[in-house]
## 1
Amino acid sequence: EVQLVESGGGLVQPGGSLRLSCAASGFTFSNYAMHWVRQAPGRGLEYVSVISSNGIITYYADSVKDRFNISRDNSKNTLYLQMDSLRAEDTALYYCARDGIPARRLGLNWFDPWGQGTLVAVSS
Amino acid sequence: EIVLTQSPATLSLSPGERATLSCRASQSISSYLVWYQQKPGQAPRLLIYDASNRAAGIPARFSGIGSGTDFTLTISSLEPEDFAVYYCQQRSNWPPTFGPGTKVDIK
């Protein structure tokens, strides 16, 4: 069974940092690009970032560029999101999601499956 | 960035009724439109990719159609477990963007 389990969320003050993790199992992790998508409380879905299957290519939404860093460890089947200079507007449930198509090249596809999310709250 | 608009915001229907949800893109996205279902307290679940292809395990009562800028998700006969929020997503241009969602609730 394909499974994605996020962790690392919590309450942090504005300007602070958090590192999210997403542990993958049930598939060949190194064959898939991986994504982070967030959802503010009671709101819709916002795309955050992607990393290619080999970890070389990354992309960030403008709202998080220069503050967030996505990485992966294929030997540990784990995806990460380092979040620095956090703002109140970063408060959200952060989901990791697998790309829809296994590929070496980074494409723009669908997201399947999604983890259950980890909650990040930025507040003083 | 491509903006997706979904209508209606809320659809109130009874079990057994037909649901028709709309997603419109701010520019042509060919058939690169995806639909997800999200139930309260759960992660989104892939329903349809590339406008009309059902994902694995998705019942045949879910169908999608459209191309260019206008897309439709139809649930032919609502089951109790179908009451949820439905999001569309475009995969034509970076960044991928989502619509604001349509909530299908019980009338």
## 2
Amino acid sequence: DAGVIQSPRHEVTEMGQEVTLRCKPISGHDYLFWYRQTMMRGLELLIYFNNNVPIDDSGMPEDRFSAKMPNASFSTLKIQPSEPRDSAVYFCASTTSHNEQFFGPGTRLTVL
Amino acid sequence: KQEVTQIPAALSVPEGENLVLNCSFTDSAIYNLQWFRQDPGKGLTSLLLIQSSQREQTSGRLNASLDKSSGRSTLYIAASQPGDSATYLCAVSDSSYKLIFGSGTRLLVRP
């Protein structure tokens, strides 16, 4: 298995632009998580899905953030409009039930 | 609210030394505890998963223990090598499947 796949690996954009991050979970995993890592706040859960349905989005910082999972093999995290304080590394992870969470390589987002 | 603390924040040891990383959590109602390794600029690599019913897990030179009642876990690394240099993160999950992370221990193993 290729593991969790994320794209792009790096994204540099200007304030106000829309940003879309993509994730392909490990095949057969029915839980998908989006995390954000910053120096100040460490790793934080933004939202997670079970069987493509959002279960808990309480970590989403504000309405500028949205996430979708149209099918079992694809999820997106969108920021519109982006702001400099959104600069961080965004990780996607997947798992089955209460098992190990496997993380993707992350997307390093820089908003100028 | 669950809080996870890792001590020390940074550790520097000579090659070959055995070492212990500590993780503590405030709410003992966890489903499992997971240890990760993160290399600079990279993603997280899962090292060990301990279910709440287990006391320890071993993988190669790594051994992780869990004491739910006291809210503690330790990661023991035997015969450390320079390639072990990385940040080690501890995370706990409750019934909601969410992982709550500690801030990590940055380990440097000197040749």
